[in-house]
Design brief:
This protein is an all-alpha fold. The chain contains 26 helices and no strands. It starts with 16 loop residues before the first helix and ends with a helix. One of its GO terms (biological process) is regulation of ER to Golgi vesicle-mediated transport.
């Protein structure tokens, strides 16, 4: 029968005040008597089963327990199984009776009296071994007390789950998870000890030593967290994080993570093999050349590790966001470092391609992480709480602004804005979730570098086209246009080099941009030359039968990539009579029943305006003689 000792609610507040006070005093008196009686009986039952269990390897100290212990599963650990079975039954009966005692001070609290009795020996052992000047109380080695607490939890976990928890279930107290409560009780000892250690670390005269000790302590707490999760107690270590989450310690921790992350980033990028292919690939085949550099994998592993360390604060989203900003700062610093690398080397340098692959790898990693629960939770916070530190963001600026201030005047300048909506597929940061702001910066920097790479190639192509004189195609002999052969080789070799060195996702916008730039280069060159009919056919053959197949291996419809120049070639190859009639219709006043635009569409010319088509036809000298 459950013993529920509570104040008599039927006594009105305003009436019989003396009677009510007398009843409450009596209740407190008898509750105390029962508590002391049941506590003493239960303590004797606990000692009788050999609690706390000890499988050997104790920290040391303390007197030996000569009673016959019960194993973690509840069976006797010696030959006297009958005696141990009786002791266990006495323990179960005493536990149930004590657990059902509800006194006023405990009715609404989170205290389970029998468990408090079971925790008391551990409190004494902990105080004995981990205080004063004992060898086990070494501030530089927190793993000693953390390992001991973990050992206690593991040694008693099965007994609590198989013997004690059923007792609570049978008396209608299944809401209690005794394994969690026991582990949390031991974690309270750890919390108090952590507070003492942190105070000692802060008082150290050598601040570098203090930082190293704090870093070591955090590493040990993370190891404890993993061990508890492995035995099905993931929330037990979460209470420990509340100590590190206090404002004075959190600021220290945040600064420490930023400091060590910066040092690690420097170490990664300055390593001799930073730009070698990840995975230890030594050959120079195309697959290894396009591999992600080791520095990119190492940096993203660093960012991921920082996120794992923040799990100690998983119960407080706002505090976890403080460490999340350190992750963002590392990503932003990495982006800026990659941009600096590309400024020091030409676009043909392997590090240039490595920087592009690194940016893509970072973006892909952030997209993969965005759906993880920890980061999805952070996305609920205002962006001001989870954004990059203001100083870093202001110093970095945007990649687009940097590009605008440094853009040089090149032979290919003015062809088109290669960052226009036509190639907007470079930016897929919408799927990066909480990482979206930094993913956009990575995408902007990558787009800027791709534009620089393509413009460098287009400069070379423009220089080759400049060797074509305005009258090169008047005769129509193949030997009259050797520059077109050189142009073809340059386009082919440039695309091949980029494909071998870039990841597929990075190479895709390269060939699209290059095709768009080449299309405009050809149109500009065409409008500056004069053609005979035979010369026009030769030029058209070069564009449609030479350049288009180069891009055909990357897309199914290369004619769409070079649409304007291909359709201009169609006009150059028209029969003289048809071309003359079309030119007359486009140049003269509109006539009834004639629609110049419809005439162009009938010829398959849809990408040129009537004015542009007329400009192309005017380059044919054979029409001037018509």
């Amino acid at each position: 029968m459950r013993r529920d000792l509570r104040p008599p609610d039927r006594l009105p507040e305003a009436e019989a005040a003396e009677l009510r006070a007398d009843a409450e005093a009596s209740l407190e008196h008898w509750a105390g008597q029962l508590r002391r009686k049941f506590s003493a009986e239960f303590a004797a039952a606990v000692r009788a089963i050999g609690w706390p269990f000890n499988s050997g390897g104790s920290t040391g100290g303390g007197s030996a327990d000569t009673s016959t212990p019960v194993s973690a599963s509840g069976s006797a650990s010696s030959g006297t199984s009958g005696s141990s079975g009786g002791k266990e039954r006495d323990f179960v009966v005493s536990f149930r009776r004590f657990a059902q005692l509800q006194v006023p001070a405990e009715a609404s609290g989170r205290s389970l009296p029998p468990l408090e009795v079971m925790l008391e020996p551990f409190r004494k052992k902990f105080a004995f071994h981990f205080s004063g000047d004992r060898p086990t109380n070494d501030p530089a080695r927190p793993e000693i007390f953390l390992t001991q607490v973990l050992k206690w939890i593991k040694e008693h976990d099965a007994f609590l789950g198989q013997v004690v928890q059923p007792c609570l279930d049978q008396v209608g107290m299944s809401a209690w998870d005794v394994r969690e409560e026991f582990a949390s009780g031991l974690m309270e000892l750890v919390k108090r000890k952590l507070g003492q250690l942190l105070e000692q670390y802060r008082e150290l005269p050598d601040k570098e030593e203090a930082d190293l000790r704090l870093a070591h302590l955090i590493n040990e707490l993370l190891a404890l967290d993993r061990e508890l999760a492995a035995v099905g107690l993931p929330s037990a270590a979460a209470t420990v994080g509340s100590v590190l989450g206090e404002p004075r310690w959190l600021a220290w921790w945040e600064g420490l993570e930023a400091k060590f992350a910066q040092a690690r980033l420097d170490e990664i990028l300055l390593a001799g093999d930073a730009w070698s292919p990840a995975g230890g690939v030594e050959d120079s085949s195309s697959s290894s050349s396009a591999a992600v550099p080791q520095c990119a994998e190492a940096v993203m592993a660093l960012v991921q590790a920082l996120g794992g360390r923040a799990n100690l604060l998983r119960t407080d989203l706002h505090k976890r966001a403080r460490l999340f900003r350190v992750q963002l700062d590392v990503l932003e610093d990495f982006r800026v470092r990659l941009r600096q690398v590309t400024r020091r080397y030409p676009t043909s340098d392997p590090r240039w391609f490595g920087a592009l692959n690194s940016l893509q790898f970072a973006r892909d990693s952030l997209t993969d992480w965005a759906d993880q629960l920890d980061y999805a939770e952070l996305s609920r916070l205002p962006e001001s709480e989870r954004s990059i530190h203001g100083a870093v963001a202001a110093a970095s600026g945007t990649a687009g602004d940097e590009a605008a201030s440094r853009a040089p005047a090149t032979a290919a300048a003015g062809l088109a804005d290669l960052s226009s909506a036509a190639i907007a597929d470079d930016d897929d940061s919408s799927g990066a979730g909480v990482f979206a702001p930094v993913a956009r910066r990575l995408a902007a920097t990558q787009s800027e570098l791709l534009e620089s790479l393509v413009r460098g190639i287009l400069d070379q192509l423009a220089a080759l086209l400049e060797s074509l004189g305005p009258d090169t195609f008047l005769s129509g002999r193949p030997s009259d246009a050797p520059a077109l052969a050189a142009l073809f080789l340059a386009v082919r070799d440039s695309l091949q080099a980029c494909r071998d060195r870039l990841q597929p996702a990075v190479f895709r916008p390269v060939w699209r941009r290059l095709a768009a730039g080449l299309n405009r280069l050809l149109m500009r060159q065409l409008l500056g030359m004069r053609f005979s009919h035979a010369g026009g056919l030769q030029f058209a053959h070069t564009v449609t039968k030479v350049f288009m197949p180069v891009f055909a291996q990357y897309c199914g419809r290369p004619d769409r990539l070079l649409a304007e120049s291909a359709q201009a070639c169609c006009l150059l190859g028209l029969a003289r009579g048809t071309a003359a009639l079309l030119r007359q219709a486009l140049a003269g006043p509109p006539r009834d029943g004639e629609d110049p635009l419809r005439m162009l569409l009938d010829l398959g010319v849809s990408s040129l305006t009537p004015e542009e088509a007329l400009a192309v036809l005017k380059r044919r000298i054979d029409l001037d003689q018509a």
